[in-house]
Each structure stands twice: as structure tokens, then as C-alpha cells.
Amino acid sequence: MWLYLNDKYVEHDKATISPFDRGFLFSDGIYEVVRSYPPRGFFQIEAHLERMRYGLEQLRIGGMDISKVRPIIEELLARNGHKSSQAIAYIQVTRGAYFPRQHFFPPPSTPPTLLISTSPFKPHAEEIEKGVQVLLEKDIRWSRCDIKTIALLPNILSRQRAVEQGVCETIWSRDGFITEGTHTNFCAVKGGVLLTPRKSNFILSGVTRQVVLHMCGTLNIPCSETSINESELGEFDECMIVGTTTEVTPVVKINELTIKDGMPGEITRRIQKELYRKIAGE
């Protein structure tokens, strides 16, 4: 498999990175995941790259030319034989390598580290069709969750607990209000209205989340970005998690609470159908 690392295409088993890279030492970097659907190609790549640009600005990482990312991914898809099937591209930028190790920024002349890889992706068809169970846990992450950083240890631990309990995902609540999942955004439906936590520094502004909100306008589905109290979960008619890899996945059970009749709902199905139309470019 070919990677792109610091201005070079390199086979993965020959790729090397400095032990003093600040991504390795401090999780000092950001990442994005972009999905490719043949024959259409990338879905919402410009939105992903714009979010990457925002993250770089917020972390004050300079020296990164975002415009070169797309052609690099195209080349990797071709080299790795991923153009004819669904695939994902992983893009990571760190503040670069510098010695000696220090908590403050290295000199501005330090080049960032850019890593891009592609891999085949198998859609979660059964989960999307039948719905999934998720855990609910307290959100104890830092307060800049709007930046897609590589500092994902809380996400890893919460997702691992979900895996060990045989469920799909963990969603979080902070001070009694739902925020998001370990790699997804959360939506619910009550009385025909789609609800999702409002944008803040406590959630990542998901690309698929924004697409879903836009589609609600197309489908004449009322929607509201609002606070969702975890005590309200039993009142919802439908719930769903949305994201690049999960697309629109119905949630039919949260911990031991069954949502409505335990089946994917009508509005979820309408949004799923519209999303696939949009992916296909119809």
C-alpha cells in the first residue's frame, strides 16, 4: 500500500517518522476522513478540507497547502487500486518534528508533517438497515471538541466499551445534555421535528450533520438545533447517528431504553433515501 508522507509517495512498510514529531509526543495535530463513492468520487470533500483549514487555524499550525490534498488522494486511490470501489482517505497534519521536546511551539520554520493514506471501505449495510444499539456515557473531554484533533483517547476508551458490550457506538452527555458520539453526531425526531444539539465548542460540526440539516429543508422536514436533555430520550419517536462512515444509521436502543417500537422510523428512512440520492449526484 502506498502512502503520502512529507512530500513523497512511499510504500507503507518503508514509511518513517521522527520520534520527535509533535503528533507522536503531544497529539499536536488534526485529521480528516473523506469517503469516495465510485463512480461519483469524493463526497463533500471541500467541506472536509474547509474544516481542516479551520482546525489548522485554531491550532496555529502554519505551512500547510490545503489545495494539494485532493490531487494527492486521487493519486493514492489510483496507486492502491481503490478507485473502482468504496474507499476512505485519511489525512493527518501535525506541527512537525522538533528537538528538543518542548511544550511551547517550535520555530515557525518547522515544517508540518502531512500523512495521507487510502483504504477500502465496506459499508455498514446491516446496521443502516436494521438500526443499532448505543451506550450513553458522561462526556469528560476537553472544551474544544469543535477542532478535529488527533487527541482521541477519550473517544477510544468509550468506543472500546461499546465494542466490549457488543453495541455500535457510545454517545455522550455533558451536564445532562447530549453532545455527540465518539465518531458521529446525534439526531432525534419528536413530533415530526428533527432535533440535533446546536453547534458549540462541545461538538464537532460534522459534514454529514450539515448535509442532513440541508436535506431536511429539501424534504420539508422541520428541524431544530437545540439542547437535548438526556432525560428526554424516552420521549423521542426516532433517533439516529450520522457521520462519514456511518452515513445515517438508525438508533433503536440507548443503554436499556428502546426507542419507540425498536424499529427505524419513517423520517430516518426518508433522510437515508435522500442522502443516497445526493451521493449519487441525482
What's a quick, concise take on this entry?
By secondary structure, this protein is an alpha+beta fold. Helices cover about 25% and strands about 30% of the residues. The chain is built from seven helices and 15 strands.
CATH architecture of the largest domain: Alpha-Beta Barrel
Query: In sequence order, what are the helices and strands, one letter per element?
Result: EEHEEHHEEHEHEEEEHEEEEH
Give the overall pLDDT as a whole number: 97
In CATH, the topology of the largest domain is named D-amino Acid Aminotransferase, Chain A, domain 2
Low-confidence stretches: none
Which structural class do the helices and strands define?
A: alpha+beta
Provide keyphrases for this structure.
single chain; 282 residues; alpha+beta; D-amino Acid Aminotransferase, Chain A, domain 1; D-amino Acid Aminotransferase, Chain A, domain 2; 2 domains; nine-stranded mixed beta sheet; six-stranded antiparallel beta sheet; globular
